[in-house]
Amino acid sequence: MKNEILLIEDDRDIREALSELIHDEGYEVRTAENGLKGLERLQEGKLPDLILVDLMMPTMSGGEFILKARELLKDKVMPIIVMSALNNAEARATELGASGHLKKPLALEELCTMVSKFCH
Amino acid sequence: MGTHLNPQYAEVLIVDDRPENLLALEASLESRDYTVVKANSGYEALRYLLHFEPALILMDVQMPGLDGFETVALLKKSERTRSIPIIFLTAINIDEKYARRGYQYGAVDYIYKPFDSDILRSKVSVFVDLHKKSRQLIEVQKLLAEGERTARAHEIAQLEVMSLKRERAEQKKYRELVDGIQHGFVWSIDALTMQPIFISKSAESILGYPLTSLLNEGNFLEKHLTPEDRESFSKTIRNLKKTDHDSGMEHRFVRSDGKTTWLHTGVQLTDNGDGTRDEIRGLSVDITELKQANQMVENAHLRAELLSEASRILSDTVDSGPNFKLLAEGLVPKFANLVYIELHPEFDPVETVEASAAVEPEHSRLRQLRNALELGRSMVKENSEFPAEYPRSIPLIAGFENLLAEPIYIRGNCRGSVCISFKDSTTEYSDEDSLMVKDLARRIAVAADNAHLYRKAQDAIRSRDEFLSIASHELKTPLTPLKLQTQSLLRAVKSGKITSLGPERMERMLETSDRQIDRLTRLIEELLDISRITSGKLELAPTHFDLVALIRETMDRFSDQMSHSGSKIELDLPESLLVHWDSFRIEQVLVNLLTNAIKYGDGKPIEIHGAEKDGYVDLLFRDHGIGIAAEDHARIFARFERAVSSSHFGGLGLGLYIVSQIVDSHSGKITVDSEVGLGSTFRVRIAADPIPLRDSSKSGSHRAGSPHSPTSTLEVFP
């Protein structure tokens, strides 16, 4: 059974490129263009193994999504990786209780290492 | 005492134990010159002599009980009776020895019985006459002494009169001296009744009442003192003791004209000179000028203190806007009973402030006053100087009797006012007060201007920080797919799996990368435009071209993006619109307005209209998307501003700013008409051939379409 990753990103080009790459690495990918859509996808079928989420998004930001998702998941373990171009991305990730962060623009190797760390 | 005052009256005492002898003697002595008094024993004679003083005593020697000699011996012991002449009458003792004894006892003569009546009578007459003469002498002496006394008394009286005259003269001199004092007056009142006894003339001018009225109205000082000083004054003068040293006090006297005179009064309790009554004497000196001078110094200190405190409060609050509440509270009640500070909302983000104590004017009245205040003009003390359009009743409103209003000028424009109402109608404000309020208004103006500039600077910094954060996000966003695709291709090439990707996948990857490069290019151009605009170097290269053709070309370039968004474009354009504009810049306007319509259009149809009328070209872009709230309409054309939260939509938020700057530089106008949820309409109106661009048209024509050929420079920021 393949590990499944939920990818939440508002920029279409990033979303599509990432989605294809992750797929190439051998994972199933579910995508959403904002936090609100991300919450909907999270509740469809079985839970994903990892969530990759952008911070600056319209309708519902990544930060808000993480808080809502934690509420929804209660005590279930769910690794969430924050992706951001912000200079304070790491601090924001820690503040939000995320499992890790990826700085934009993303480096392919870094992305693969991070994903494989949470998906066995 | 039985002594007769009449010197012509005399008595002769005859003493004998035998009544027949007494009768015989009385008969022979009978005379108009004296009265005969009889005594039948020595005792009876002594009793008589206790009360009377006879001119002569005729005494029988031989008597039972107390004999003649013994009786005389007793008489000689008394001072009063010692000098009375005594003639002994005897029948038997005629020898020398016996007679000598009689003389030893003080007898003046002996008459032997039987005696010769004539001799006896003549002897008696001599003694009576002597007695009378000596009595007369005494009377004369008495009279003489009396006369002397009277003369002396007269003399004394004359001396007294003289001294009195001298005293009067001195008193007059003293009064003249006292009356000569112009800045003070002396007075005295009865310590018991408190009725005035004396008030010197200068009191009239100092107190403003005629002396007659002051003298007739009881304790004149106490009566006219201000209520706050009256009690301590009364207490002091009622508890005065003679041993008290001149105790000075200061108090205020209300003159007949209502003005207040400050007096320094020293009082003393003393008797009036003859010990019949006690007086309170006082010297009151007019110290009004001194007080006023002191008051002025004090006021100057107070004003300086208040102003310095005001400056401190104003400078302490440069970040939050002037704290007028604190400022006003600092002035009440020390300086005024009401302070009202009002500033144009632009300069006063907090609120308009009133502070008052004691007097609480109705709020609505205060508003009425404020409304009546003509901005840009000082109200002055005299009611008549209120402009005719002011309701005349305003200065009569409680608490506004003494109103001082001062406009607050900020950079030459009246932007508010300070109104200060003073304690009461009697506290007239001075020129210094007026200057203080002017100073205060200036300080408020400076502080408000500083705070305003500070807020503007803070806003600008916030906008810039937000812009930098957005710019960072926007610039990095295209880099992510670009980098991912490049690295992915690179990895495939290195691992020899490039062929397994397939041509379709490779094309898609390259197309994505190409789009990212376009995005970056646009962002960089936008940034460069901003940089040019802010440094005032937006250079226009006007050319003659067809606007309709330009619009259609632009549409073609955006067809892909439009189909992606789902918005349909409805064009309403004439055949052609010939204009003399900078085509490159105008294309930026079109692109920005179009992308905004697509971005915020919510997938609904977008209308674009173009028309020319009276030499002006009107362009209209209408979407039916999220719209813009009315309060944001002005803001959206500013740098780094956008109406919605930055995280929702991509872009640098510079689009509309650049658009407005370009339209401006073409001497055109851009307006927005929008409602939340119903969409937005942007209208651009520019002259087809704007005058400012005409001069450069000849030189600019051969470089048509070249955005980098500077032909005219417009100062965007003056």
In short:
The complex is a heterodimer of chains A (120) and B (718). Chain A has 120 residues and is of the alpha/beta class.
Q: Strand portion of chain B, in percent?
A: 15-25%
How many beta strands in the DSSP annotation of chain A? 5
The low-confidence runs of chain B, each spanning 5 or more residues with pLDDT under 50, are 350-365, 371-399, 643-649, 697-718
Shape of chain A: globular
**Total helical elements of chain A:** 5
Rg of chain A, please? Answer: 13 Å
How many β strands of chain B by DSSP?
A: 23
Task: Tell me the name of the CATH homologous superfamily of chain A.
Answer: Response regulator
Series of H and E elements of chain A: EHEHEHEHEH
Distance between the termini of chain B: 135 Å
CATH class of the largest domain in chain B: Alpha Beta
Under the CATH scheme, the architecture of chain A is: 3-Layer(aba) Sandwich
- The residue-averaged pLDDT of chain B reads 78
Whole-number mean pLDDT of chain A: 90
Largest inter-chain contact set: A-B, 24 and 26 residues
Molecular shape of chain B: rod-shaped
Helix content of chain A: 40-55%
How would you portray this structure in words?
The complex is a heterodimer of chains A (120) and B (718). Chain A has 120 residues and is α/β, with parallel strands linked by helices. Chain A has helices at 12-24, 35-42, 62-73, 89-96, 108-118, and strands spanning 4-8, 28-32, 50-54, 80-84, 100-103. The longest helix of chain A has 13 residues, at 12-24. The mean pLDDT of chain A is 90. Chain B is of the alpha+beta class and 718 residues long. Chain B has 4 domains: 11-145, Response regulator (Rossmann fold, 3-Layer(aba) Sandwich); 181-286, PAS domain (Beta-Lactamase, 2-Layer Sandwich), CATH 3.30.450; 294-458, Beta-Lactamase (2-Layer Sandwich); 527-714, Heat Shock Protein 90. Chain B is built from 22 helices and 23 strands. The longest helix of chain B is centred in the N-terminal third of the chain and has 64 residues, at 117-180. Mean pLDDT of chain B is 78; it is low at 350-365, 371-399, 643-649 and 697-718. At the A-B interface, helix 1 and helix 5 of A face helix 14 and helix 16 of B.
